[in-house]
């Protein structure tokens, strides 16, 4: 038998595994690296986060990714080169973190590598007649390069199985959220405010699991960050929501932005900066004569848009004015008081807390969830949630790369 397969069988039979989860979302702020100890699998999974860091992407990394990111037309040569380059970059970042944490790579069982999303193309969003009805998504940072670069068996490219099984390839949070954070005491909404905002609804543990589902709700930080970058070259985001809090919502522009059919479409749904990008904003500004709107007012309006997107999706689930489950926030937008304030206004009556209250640091949550998926791929079973709202496919996800 191939020694690497024997090693994998051995790992699968151990009571626990040490897994580095990696995540880099659409914000291009950096690579989230979460070293986790996972004991057991499935509903019995126990997770301890041993170390976490976000390794920031420098200007050069962001520049290279933006050459292809969310662009309908790119240099195929550039894209081809970026794939192994990002795999090596991520491998180096993992090794740097392990060195800082004084953990030997040989003491880590698996890397769970999400890769860098460069294009998300659900059927409802792309306009390629040749592929009508087909969902697709593309993450770069090849897993073989991560495995070879770290010397650690790597599970990568999780989203393709979800697509192959009939999903949109996102959000994948349903699985890990369900396994780690279902509670017999309460139903929960786990609201992640990344570049795109999404939530997972978890019914009370023991209730009908098929009611669990995840959906994107629209932009989270992506339009905010783009506006800051365009008006204040050198700044990446509106620290503490200070600029947005100094502005006033422009009702006309907000109305035009909310006129996009995405906000009224049935749940669950997924999206990305391919839709919620500069062209979408420019069209709404042109239509409302707000092209010259100042940055503060623009950010206040975009914060409102993100919050209303979340509120509309929540109301689609529970009905307007209905009592809401507890809301637990995560992702970088959870650090933006302007966004949290708007969410509280639009979801009155909901109790808000950070996922930290559940023992999951909000910045580490997404990277942790990929460690959970890798653990299931190696030691678990397809997670069966049943034929509920999402028809969450019962699959294990990820491709396995050997070092050496
Ligand atoms: N202190 C902060 N104040 C305001 N916004 C913040 C703060 N920290 C992070 N963010 C926002 O969060 C984003 C990163 O969120 P993240 O959850 O990493 O998203 P992604 O999954 O898309 O990478 C940043 O680009 C920024 O918009
Ligand atoms: Mg990020």
From TrEMBL:
Biological process (GO), any one: peptidoglycan turnover
Catalytic activity field: 1,6-anhydro-N-acetyl-beta-muramate + ATP + H2O = N-acetyl-D-muramate 6-phosphate + ADP + H(+)
Binding-site residues for ATP, renumbered to this chain: 25-32
EC number annotated for this UniProt entry: 2.7.1.170
Domain of life of the source: Bacteria
MF (Gene Ontology): ATP binding; kinase activity; phosphotransferase activity, alcohol group as acceptor
Pfam families, sorted: AnmK
Family label: Belongs to the anhydro-N-acetylmuramic acid kinase family.
Chain's role: Catalyzes the specific phosphorylation of 1,6-anhydro-N-acetylmuramic acid (anhMurNAc) with the simultaneous cleavage of the 1,6-anhydro ring, generating MurNAc-6-P. Is required for the utilization of anhMurNAc either imported from the medium or derived from its own cell wall murein, and thus plays a role in cell wall recycling.
Name used for this protein in its record: Anhydro-N-acetylmuramic acid kinase
Source organism: Hymenobacter nivis
């Amino acid at each position: 038998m191939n020694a690497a397969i024997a090693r994998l069988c051995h790992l699968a039979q151990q009571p626990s595994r040490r897994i580095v989860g990696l995540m880099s979302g659409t914000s291009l702020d950096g690579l989230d690296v979460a070293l986790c100890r996972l004991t057991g699998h499935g509903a019995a999974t126990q997770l301890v986060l041993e170390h976490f860091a976000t390794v920031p992407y420098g200007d050069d990394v962001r520049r290279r990714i933006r050459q292809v990111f969310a662009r309908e037309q790119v240099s195929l040569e550039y894209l081809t080169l970026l794939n192994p380059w990002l795999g090596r970059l991520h491998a180096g970042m993992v090794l740097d973190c392990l060195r800082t944490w004084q953990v030997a790579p040989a003491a880590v069982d698996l890397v769970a590598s999400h890769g860098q999303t460069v294009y998300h193309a659900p059927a409802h969003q792309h306009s390629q007649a040749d592929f009508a009805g087909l969902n697709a998504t593309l993450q770069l940072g090849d897993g073989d390069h991560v495995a070879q670069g770290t010397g650690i068996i790597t599970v990568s490219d999780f989203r393709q199985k979800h697509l192959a099984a009939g999903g949109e390839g996102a959000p994948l949070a349903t699985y890990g959220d369900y396994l780690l954070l279902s509670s017999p005491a309460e139903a929960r909404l786990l609201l992640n405010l990344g570049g795109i905002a999404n939530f997972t609804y978890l019914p009370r543990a023991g209730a009908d699991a098929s009611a669990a589902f995840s959906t994107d709700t629209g932009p989270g930080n992506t339009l905010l960050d783009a506006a800051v970058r365009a008006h204040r070259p050198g700044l990446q985001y509106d620290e503490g929501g200070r600029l947005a809090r100094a502005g006033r919502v422009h009702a006309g522009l907000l109305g035009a932005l909310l006129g996009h059919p995405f906000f009224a479409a049935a749940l669950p749904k997924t999206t990305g900066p391919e839709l919620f990008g500069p062209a979408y904003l420019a069209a709404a500004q042109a239509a409302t004569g707000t092209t010259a709107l100042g940055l503060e007012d623009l950010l206040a309006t975009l914060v409102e848009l993100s919050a209303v997107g979340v509120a509309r999706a929540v109301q689609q689930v529970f009905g307007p004015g209905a009592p809401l489950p507890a809301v637990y926030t995560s992702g970088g937008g959870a650090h933006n008081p302007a966004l949290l304030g708007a969410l509280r206004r639009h979801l009155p009556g909901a109790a808000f807390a950070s996922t930290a209250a559940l023992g999951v640091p909000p910045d580490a949550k997404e990277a942790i969830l990929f460690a959970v998926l890798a653990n299931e791929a190696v030691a678990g079973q397809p997670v069966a949630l049943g034929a509920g709202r999402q028809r969450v496919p019962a699959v294990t996800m990820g491709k396995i790369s050997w070092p050496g």
